[in-house]
């Protein structure tokens, strides 16, 4: 059956697979101290044009989020959209490390400086947590992206209140290849204190590349990785994958494929007069359908019901690095049939 | 200066002080295993008409909240009003024990079955925390109280979804003596899985009496108390105080004094045409003032600015077990002057 | 350079790699709900001859240990050898989940019923943690193994004191294929409450298969996996690997290779009159060398200095599923040269 | 019945009680921001001859220990004697805040620089916790005390390895008044990064005065107090007590009484030819008795069996600020009868 369910349904990109095959029999030291990891680190440093960042490769997104946020002191809290992954979909992983997630109303699944400032102003003394980190995802959980202006404004508010800005880049590839994007990795590194480049959802079997720019967050980060069970014994698997993804822009081409496929679906929806629930230009599309239509579609295509409404359901269609144009065409025909 | 700032400004009721003086030189075993504590436990059991409850005496409210909530499993979460003490004013104490506080919009500072049900329905799988406990405070952080009907409805929804109902009774005395109250300690024990009778804000130097009815929450609770640094070495201090407060209804008379004083202030505000911001019948009064008026009042009376608004400020006047009628009269005259 | 440094230097077994290649382009649902994972679960159930166990596949050992131990209540503690991985080499991961590791003196890197009983007897009230789980590793951190008799004795003491018995099987393959082993997976499942079959160190790229027999430990375990960042998005990678490893006894043949290679080294050491520091029959060999000899060996072979002594150093030689006999022969010649 | 069971059996010193009575009806601001607390802070600053320390008053010892240790980062650990209170008698409170207690063999219940250095040398990389704090108690759990030379040596090793030195002073009064003591509060403040002056076991109803000298440990400490449920609403109760205890050396006179009483018992034991199990000069005495003798003594005096041995039992006799000489005399007569 056709599937537009998510962007982690397939294995990895062919080039990544080949690199894993080629290096499989080699012996390397463990825990990310091997040469492949070193090379991947250098590639990332070069892409962000910053020799001084610290780079670490972890396995998955929730793991990365909780490890990064565990750099906070016990009484420090992280501000997130109510729609943020750490607030909703991580089974309390952040709280399990002891930190409060201060959730504020989203604006197209994004955080605004105004919302952050309101949090700061209402947290005034030792009876309340100390807001210290701002968590954003780009692209967001609803596929929207931050513009350079928006990110600069967030940076400004973080500077004003001495907050760390942390970008969850589980879907950063798709964000960067969006037609509306005006951010580069160099910008993101400059404007964030820490962020990561997601591999799991864009061509790797698994893996997230954490980039730490702020010196306050660097010391002993590897201890946190290990303590949180996030240090892969065969660390070179991460190095090999990220080296392959990043060295010839493969990462970006894969994200482009996901976006192109999503855009084909968008065009068809547009043609059919269906508006996006939360308009985006990345690899996730949200539309509101009647329960009846959704139900019929489910019989021919795999996708997710995202949000139940009184008069219907918001469904999500997701494309990936591995989505085939033919499948998209087939899907658009099914859409035509029911919409 | 007159003070209506809070209900923990004074020491303890005279009777409590006398009991502490009388027993000061006696030698007892520590950690709540003494005779006074035993007697206080028996009094509580008799007041809730339930021999099977487990009773523990702790020092303060935040400490009690975090200890009770630490009975949850790591992935279990507690539902609270956005205005709930555990959500706002405990410096992330609950999260520090590893648990997410799921905050929902309050209705007069109270939780509704509808809000709880909405949380349950949106928490559907292992990517999200498991809502397991419902936290309410009575009287609430805004002085409102739960009726028997409301508490029964919360019990029903908790039964439906297998949730624990936990009542923070830091201000339970004032709630029970409210003219609108129709709940008894027997009702509360029947309808809640665990609750506490607050001493700190009603006649004790310090102390909260936890009543555990649900057998699932009983085992090894004293280990949790000790682990959380909440086990008082000279435990008899708690026993002596609660025995004194509860044996001849002193606890209730003290709460009545706080309510009576608050009601005198209410009457005056009413007379002056000032509406309560969130109408209540307990020892806390919230009114919206212009910044100018608030500022003038501050020069003659101690009280708290509770909530900044665009066009003024919500201030809080609090009475206590120790508030003197004369002071209330003096205060009403000041109110007359400025309102 | 020759390497006998550890058993996670190489990628995975060829058969595993082929299975990953073959399934790479397939679309599956995520988070371990796919068919491959289901098949691997069934294989494990069949190997332990128990339909009622719950099976989960996690990525790494520390992650698995902390997730399993997080089933404990906050005041419950885990008993381990002082040499246990959780006590020494996990950067406080267990304590970070809130639990004390009660470390007792090891007996050939193993726990004895006597040591456990001594812990129980000295933990008598609520001022101390409640010992609730026993952690053992098989093979141990020093390559030794538990006999059936020893495991039965541990079971008996756990039954006597109502303790969970948890076996860390990161190197279970090597233990089971040891010439001195008399345990089967069926025995282990019967005698332990929870254990895992390690893939990372025996033929998989990564992966540990957790087997939960005790019903008390089963509920909501997947919530704990997710909360601890241990739920792999592309869960089928674990299913595919374990299915391949377990379906035709590949897992055991790979472990046999590691043991065979180690035994060749053992024979040579024996021939040379060098005694093992802690005699074992698995894939790890510990010998005490003079600093001079160790230093020379380091110039030709990669291996680890394990323990500094006043008059020398205990070094560790490790073989793996991928160790080649030719390399072993080459190594024995180097040993001959220096020992 | 006579009791030499512990030093928290009685209430508080008369002078403290009188101060509490005198201030009972006053209204003060809460949470330690009152004038009495300010005065007590100033007294402590003056006693340690250091204006720059931060002073906080908490309720109990375990609470204070866990709050101080929660200043560490997640991967940092605290080194303690195996006999240390935090290692044995706090129900895993330190681990519950996420930190490993690295327990090393005690030397007369004390830590040595050699033991600390051994820990440092065996903790070499990110697979292990980072030892960062040294926990000592003075007097120790066995009544022994640190000399100035010993404390200076600990300071030196802490300086060498960048460790915080934390002294648990639950029984500091008795230590300072010991005939063998050569330390002053000024020395202790100079040599420790943080320590506390115990009130609970020396004349207060409850209370421990934390003195933070190291600037790294100062920021936001009050947030940690609140988060750990350790912030007393009526904070002035602590201020009043410590002001009274410290202003005219009452604290030291009370400790002297405890020591004097203990010394009378020591003399008698000496006369009777009974050696102390771990010789001390403070308010705790440990002697080994046959089970038969211990059993007879228990019929006439309350005291604690501390440590079961194969051929008898180590019992503990404790005196306090409130112990009466007559009771000691009566006790020595009973001792004469049985020893």
Quick summary:
Four copies of one chain form a homotetramer. The first copy, chain A, is an alpha/beta fold and 339 residues long.
Explained architecture:
Four copies of one chain form a homotetramer. The first copy, chain A, has 339 residues and is an alpha/beta fold. Chain A folds into two domains: 89 residues, Aspartate Aminotransferase, domain 1; 237 residues, Aspartate Aminotransferase, domain 2, CATH 3.40.640. In chain A, 41% of the residues lie in helices and 18% in strands. Chain A is built from 14 helices and twelve strands. In chain A, strands 2-8-7-6-5-3-4 form a seven-stranded mixed sheet, sandwiched between helices. In chain A, strands 9-12-11 form a three-stranded antiparallel sheet. In chain A, strands 1-10 form a two-stranded parallel ribbon. In chain A, helix 2 packs parallel to helix 11 and helix 6 runs parallel beside helix 7. Chain A is globular, with a radius of gyration of 20 Å. Chain A starts with a strand and ends with a helix. Chains in contact: A-B, A-C, A-D, B-C, B-D, C-D. Chains A and C meet through helix 1, helix 3 and helix 10 of A and helix 1, helix 3 and helix 10 of C.
Query: Looking across the biggest beta sheet of chain A, what order are the strands in?
Result: 2-8-7-6-5-3-4
CATH T-level topology of the largest domain in chain A = Aspartate Aminotransferase, domain 2
Helical run tally of chain A: 14
* N- to C-terminal distance of chain A: 19 Å
Strand content of chain A: 15-25%
Q: Which pair of chains has the greatest number of interface residues, and how are they split between the two chains?
A: A-C, 50 and 50 residues
Please state the CA-atom Rg of chain A, rounded to the nearest Å: 20 Å
Kindly provide the name of the CATH class of the largest domain in chain A.
Alpha Beta
Oligomer: homotetramer
Shape of chain A: globular
**Average pLDDT over all residues of chain A:** 97
Structural class category of chain A? alpha/beta
CATH architecture identity of the largest domain in chain A: 3-Layer(aba) Sandwich
Main sheet makeup of chain A: 7 strands, mixed
| Low-confidence runs of at least 5 consecutive residues of chain A | none
SSE string of chain A, helix = H, strand = E? EHHEHEHHEHEHEHHEEHHHEHEEEH
Annotation, overall tally of beta strands of chain A? 12
């Amino acid at each position: 059956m056709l599937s537009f369910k998510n962007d982690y349904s397939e294995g990895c990109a062919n080039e990544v697979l080949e690199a894993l095959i080629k290096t499989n029999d080699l012996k390397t030291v463990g825990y990310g101290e091997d040469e492949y990891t070193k090379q991947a680190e250098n590639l990332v440093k070069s892409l962000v044009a910053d020799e001084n960042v610290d780079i670490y490769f972890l396995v998955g997104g929730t793991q990365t989020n909780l490890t990064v946020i565990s750099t906070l002191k016990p009484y420090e809290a992280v501000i997130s959209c109510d729609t943020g992954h750490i607030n909703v979909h991580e089974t309390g992983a952040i709280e399990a490390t002891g930190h409060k997630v201060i959730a504020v109303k989203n604006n197209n699944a994004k955080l605004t400086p105004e919302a952050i400032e309101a949090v700061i102003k209402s947290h005034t003394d030792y009876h309340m947590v100390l807001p210290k980190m701002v968590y954003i995802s780009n692209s967001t959980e609803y596929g929207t992206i931050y513009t350079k202006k928006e990110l600069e404004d967030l940076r400004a508010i973080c500077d004003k209140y001495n907050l760390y800005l942390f970008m969850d880049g589980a879907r950063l590839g798709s964000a960067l290849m969006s037609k509306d994007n005006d951010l580069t990795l160099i910008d993101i590194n400059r404007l964030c204190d820490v962020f990561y480049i997601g591999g799991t959802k864009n061509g790797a079997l698994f893996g997230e590349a954490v980039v730490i720019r702020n010196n306050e967050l660097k010391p002993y980060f590897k201890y946190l990785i290990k303590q949180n069970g996030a240090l892969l014994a065969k660390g070179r698997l991460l190095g090999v994958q990220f080296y392959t993804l990043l060295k010839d822009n493969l990462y970006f081409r894969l994200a482009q494929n996901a976006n192109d496929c999503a855009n084909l679906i968008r065009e068809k929806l547009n043609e059919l007069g269906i508006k996006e629930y939360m308009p985006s230009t990345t690899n996730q599309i949200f539309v509101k359908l009647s329960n009846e239509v959704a139900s019929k579609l489910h019989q021919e295509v795999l996708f997710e019901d995202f949000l139940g409404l009184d008069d219907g359901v918001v469904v999500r269609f997701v494309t990936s690095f591995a989505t085939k144009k033919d499948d998209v065409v087939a899907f658009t025909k099914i859409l035509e049939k029911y919409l």
